[in-house]
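Exercise 7. Given the encoded structure of a 335-residue chain, write a plausible sequence.
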């Protein structure tokens, strides 16, 4: 099938082309560098399949344009789908497919890297040493051993993260509205308020839903220990940025590690080093010495990108042939 691939980087071209050749899919891939938004949707005219990424905008307007121009299948090369108006997709008869799992190890390990880097101030030490400054003033960390870590969300990534922290000798608390029986071997399930109150480190591993939007808000921060570490490698809008800034200013939040940001779509995955960043909240975050932000790279390992490419194209092939599994997502259920 003819596939229009949006938000293309060099690694997308490499891994998708390799998967297409190695697995004999035979699809015709056209790579577009721009994001999929209202202004670029017409580029997909004549393509029955559109391949989109997390910061592409698949709202009602874009979906209608795609459908009018002949698109039948939206193949997401991501697990998340909150950027898609699924109700409109269903109305238009568009099939939406995703990559339900690629490498939970990649994201869990990146979350751990943020914890260790913030605690031991690796990012600051790196810059000091390059400048010939070997002072360790201000570099004091703490032993992770014996600390209490709260994990919000106990899917595969959350459980792997919990296992890693257990290996450091931490007590791991967890909250999930749908407890995972397998997780109980490494976590103690507690109410969310108790998790906030007891945890030295809080890490988010849950999807973005109406219930979890701004899960970390002013009220939640007020329930936390002074100097708590907050880590988010899941979805940006789980965190109320303005509330977190106030928490950093007051000292209630002692460390903040983000791989996602609620207004990231105009920032992440692009080189803006020669431009002025006009997002005041984001630039304010960058002024804090106890904040570490990475640009949505937790998923970015060789293994994960390989799995994403292979599953994305397998979804397209299954849709085209009627054989195999299409990992569909609709407005009322996952399949």
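Solution.
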């Amino acid at each position: 099938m003819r596939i229009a691939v949006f938000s293309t980087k060099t690694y997308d071209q490499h891994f998708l082309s390799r998967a297409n050749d190695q697995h004999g899919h035979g699809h015709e891939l056209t790579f577009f560098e721009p994001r999929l938004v209202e202004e670029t949707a017409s580029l997909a005219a004549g393509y029955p399949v559109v391949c989109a990424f997390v910061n592409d905008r698949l709202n009602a307007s874009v979906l209608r344009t795609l459908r009018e121009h002949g698109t039948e299948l939206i193949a997401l090369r991501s697990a998340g789908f909150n950027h898609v108006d699924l109700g409109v997709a269903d109305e238009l008869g568009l099939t939406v497919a995703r990559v339900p799992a690629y490498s939970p190890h990649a994201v869990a390990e990146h979350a751990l890297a943020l914890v260790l880097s913030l605690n031991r101030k690796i990012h600051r030490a790196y810059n000091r040493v390059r400048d010939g400054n070997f002072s360790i003033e201000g570099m004091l960390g703490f032993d992770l051993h014996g600390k209490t870590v709260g994990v919000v969300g106990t899917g595969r990534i959350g459980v792997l993260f919990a296992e890693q922290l257990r290996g450091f000798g931490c007590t791991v608390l967890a909250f999930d509205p749908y407890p995972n029986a397998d997780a109980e071997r490494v976590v103690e399930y507690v109410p969310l308020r108790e998790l906030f109150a007891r945890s030295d480190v809080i890490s988010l591993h849950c999807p973005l839903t109406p219930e979890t939007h701004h899960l970390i808000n002013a009220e939640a921060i007020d329930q936390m220990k002074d100097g708590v570490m907050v880590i988010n490698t899941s979805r940006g809008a789980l965190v109320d940025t303005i509330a977190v800034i106030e928490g950093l200013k007051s000292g209630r939040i002692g460390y903040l590690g983000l791989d996602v940001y609620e207004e990231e779509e105009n920032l992440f995955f692009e080189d803006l080093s020669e431009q002025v960043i006009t997002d005041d909240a984001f630039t304010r975050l960058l002024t804090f010495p106890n904040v570490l932000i990475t640009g949505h790279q937790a998923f970015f390992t060789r293994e994960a990108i390989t799995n994403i490419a292979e599953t994305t194209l397998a979804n397209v092939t299954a849709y085209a042939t009627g054989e195999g599994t299409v990992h569909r997502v609709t407005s009322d259920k996952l399949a």
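Remark. Residues 104-293 form a domain with the Rossmann fold fold (CATH 3.40.50.720). Students should compare their own answers with the one above.
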